[in-house]
Specification:
There is one protein chain. The protein is an alpha/beta fold and about 350 residues long. The protein folds into three domains: about 200 residues, Rossmann fold; about 50 residues, SH3 type barrels, CATH 2.30.30; about 80 residues, Translation factors (Elongation Factor Tu (Ef-tu), domain 3, Beta Barrel). It contains eight helices and 17 strands. The strands form three sheets. Strands 12-15-14-13-16-17 form a six-stranded antiparallel barrel. Helix 1 packs parallel to helix 2 and helix 1 packs across helix 6.
């Protein structure tokens, strides 16, 4: 590995710290970089910067902070506020990975240091397929920690330049490695929330700073008023708790009608969908399909991937048909397509399809 150089993104958590330590142990010349995304607490800011600096001191590698606050505000904070205001539930992490983290970090590595490789502590794997001549993004060995779902926006150029040192490890093995290397973050608790949630206390608290609270009606599919809501940005499709409605059967949020400021609710059966339309596609491990393909689709991070057909309808839109109806298909979230452990691509859910 003599002469190999890499810029490692350090959040101050155990995963990125261990990734950096692994690369140092493999003989890489490592430069640690922390992206300053916003003020306040959170894994990626303030206290995270301090912990990242401590790790770099332990590993005897340089540490630099890159100010990405304006980029983060434009690509993530404004994106979230606009989406919730329109009655959708955006997925910020996948957008952040491409537009705020990976692409800017690679550009920084190249322009500042003349380095063409970056690395992070994500749980995912990258391989090269000589038959298709494409890099393939794969699930991590530890399926319980696999983060490939959030990485579907990455491009071939980014995959070619990226290392995921933890892709072959379980979380338990990562902590064991961190302890073996004597890292200060070896026992640091894992972040459980989005950085914005950690910084503001809750997503609702963050949104309430930027969106006016406009109470309105909670209705069923027939338009019957069942209650009042506190602002559509406080709700998401599939939600059951916090509706404040007494009903003979459990009710779930079916849709958010921003135009009429209404939350539409119904039974669990009504919350099932046969499929969905997906656009803003990014095909990662394969060229864009021109004919229907069988795949497995994951419609939220914690969901299991289910069998489906992906049917192209134009250059940037597909119709997804589930093998079995799915609950709570949510506009704004990502639909990510797999074949076994290979991530084919993904996009943003626009509308669910009726059963």
């Amino acid at each position: 590995m003599a002469g190999k150089r890499v810029v490692v993104g350090l959040s101050g958590g155990v995963d990125s710290s261990t990734a950096a330590a692994c690369l140092v142990a493999q003989g890489y010349e490592v430069i640690g970089v922390t992206l300053w995304l916003m003020p306040g607490k959170g894994q990626c800011c303030s206290e995270g910067m301090v912990d990242a600096a401590r790790i770099c001191e332990q590993l005897n590698i340089p540490h630099h902070v890159v100010d990405m606050r304006e980029v983060f505000r434009g690509h993530i904070m404004d994106y979230l506020v606009a989406g919730y205001g329109q009655g959708i539930t955006p997925l910020p992490c996948s957008q952040c990975n491409r537009w705020v983290k990976f692409a800017p970090m690679l550009q920084y590595a190249q322009t500042t240091w003349g380095i063409d490789q970056i690395a992070t502590g994500h749980y995912a794997r990258i391989t090269y397929n000589p038959v298709t001549e494409r890099y393939e993004l794969r699930r991590a060995v530890d399926r319980t920690k696999d983060q490939s779902y959030f990485l579907y926006t990455l491009t071939q150029d980014l995959l070619a330049a990226t290392l995921f040192p933890l892709g072959e490890y379980t979380k338990t093995q990562t902590r064991e490695l961190a302890a073996r290397y004597g890292l200060a973050t070896a026992t640091k608790p894992e972040s459980q929330d989005l950085c914005l949630v950690e910084a503001h206390g809750s997503m609702q608290a963050f949104l309430d700073r930027y969106l006016p609270t406009q109470p309105g009606e909670i209705v069923n599919r027939q338009g019957q008023v069942l209650g009042q809501h506190t602002g559509i940005h406080h709700y998401t499709v599939g939600q059951r708790r916090g509706l404040g409605i007494a009903a003979p059967e459990p009710l779930y949020v079916l849709a958010l009608d921003a135009a009429h400021n209404r939350v539409i609710v119904g039974s669990r059966e009504e919350a099932l969908s046969a499929g969905c339309q997906v656009d803003r596609l990014n095909w990662v491990s394969m060229a864009p399909p021109t004919t229907p393909i069988p795949a497995q689709v994951q419609i939220r991070y914690q969901a299991l991937a289910v069998d489906c057909w992906v049917i192209p309808t134009d250059t940037d839109r597909v119709q997804v048909t589930f093998a079995t109806p799915q609950f709570g298909v949510t506009p704004g979230q990502a639909a990510v397509f797999y074949q076994n452990d290979v991530l084919l691509g993904g996009g943003i859910i626009q509308t669910p399809s009726d059963k």
